Amino acid sequence: MFSIIVVPPQTPEDERTGTQFRLAPGERLVFGRAVPEGGLLIGHDGVSRRAGEITAHGTFWTVSNLSAHQTYVVENPEGAGEHIKVAPGRLDAPVPFEFSRIVLPAAGDLLPVEVWAPRHDYLRGGDGADGEPTAPAFSVDRTKRYFAVLAALCEPRLRGAPHAPLPTMDQVVQRLRPTWPAASRTSVQWNIDYLAVKLRLKPGPETAAPGPRLNGKKESLVSLALRFDLVREDDLVVLAEPSGQALR
Fold this sequence. Notes:
Elements: E1 4-7, E2 21-23, E3 28-32, E4 40-41, E5 52-56, E6 61-65, E7 72-75, E8 83-86, E9 93-95, E10 99-106, E11 109-116, H1 145-159, H2 169-176, H3 185-198, H4 217-227
Parallel strand pairs: 3-4
Antiparallel strand pairs: 1-2, 1-11, 3-5, 5-6, 6-9, 7-8, 7-10, 10-11
């Protein structure tokens, strides 16, 4: 059973289209500009002869950086800028992302090698333990207006690039108008402040000592929400035209 799919970059010297490498657990794929038969050949003078190696495991994969001087970056295109760095000579660095992009700096170019790890293993059923249920890490109600505000803030990065600029306050207001006709800059800002307290990014007003000023409040909220899947692409339905029940 294949667990890893690798899509090589397109270079001026490479006219292949639709090429994919499929790896089963335990299989390895060497990549570079001079690799053995069956390897991933990247025809670019800025890529090392043996640049690296991908190894498939059951539900994840590792990458080895075989270059002498160049750091590689493995990006999570769906993770709001989440990435790991693989230093020169680092062997078998584990990659936790389902969809990844290895970025190879190559003499002024950035060559992306895309890797999918679509297989997932999950625990079936509950843990069977007795006693009180575990309290949720983040308590959010998807029917409330504050969640719609959070969804509107996250929407550009869920639908587009992980580094997409966050919407302005006016853009958030306009996006919320179909389900919240009375939305205004003041009400949206109140909900952002409320979220900062609710998600424990900032102490509440009842705290004796005043909390520190939260710089980049919107950025902090979006980063937290996307890292912990508080808002997923499916949740953007709360921004659609109302179909019966308005947000509260």
